[in-house]
Amino acid sequence: MPFNKFIPCYHHHFGRQCKLAYYGFTKLVELLEAIPEILQVLECGEEKILTLTEVERFKALAAQFVKLLRSQKDNCLMMTDLLTEYAKTFGYTFRLQDYNVSSVSALTQKLCHVV
């Protein structure tokens, strides 16, 4: 997520303003850098990008896969159908490269504790 989209997204998601003072900060970047085990602030040229750490990305993905599997008949899904069903369920295409894998099989190996 672009850094400059965080505040509007926060407001949209929570229905209230993000008051930095509630968290003991005066600058947003300081707040976000205070949680390095969850979030990374990357600089791409002039622009700052927010991204979850790899651990947090996989936690979020695991929760999505649980939801996806529970929505299936018999809680099962063919690996060949995973990307299609993911897109239908969550409304966007799954990008294997975001998880540093090139196949669904490699992805499921990283999520062996879930699937």
From TrEMBL:
Coiled coil start-end: none
Top-level lineage group: Eukaryota
Keywords tagged on the record: Differentiation
Keyword NAD attributed: no
Ranges for domain HTH OST-type: 1-56, 57-115
GO biological process: cell differentiation
Pfam families per the UniProt record, alphabetical: OST-HTH
Name by which UniProt lists this protein: HTH OST-type domain-containing protein
